[in-house]
Design a protein that fits this description.
Largest sheet: 3 strands, parallel
Helix content: 40-55%
Strand order of the largest sheet: 1-2-3
Number of helices: 4
Radius of gyration: 14 Å
Strand content: 5-15%
Distance between the termini: 13 Å
Structural class: alpha/beta
Length: 106
Amino acid sequence: MKYYAGIGSRQTPKELIPTIDKIVLKLNELGYTLRSGAADGADTFFENKSVLKEIFLPWKGYNNHTSELYNDTPEGWVLAEKYHPNWKALSDGAKKLMVRNGYQVL
């Protein structure tokens, strides 16, 4: 399978939606699967037109999303802790978001 991460800022301007849609439609045509995280902004814009998608959530029901991909693994936690510059300062929720981010890109 071929994957791409459709991620970005929560403040992605809505004016970029047509451009993102063109990118997504081409990637659909080429058989790519979106990996994203159900955040507002860019994540949602990429998901809207995607046919094949894997939406990783930090916890069940995040952003009212119905994806079942919310069960993290010990390996995901190890990687997130290893690469985050200030892991110990994060709240439990922020840590779960960082673990989720890893699944989107790896």
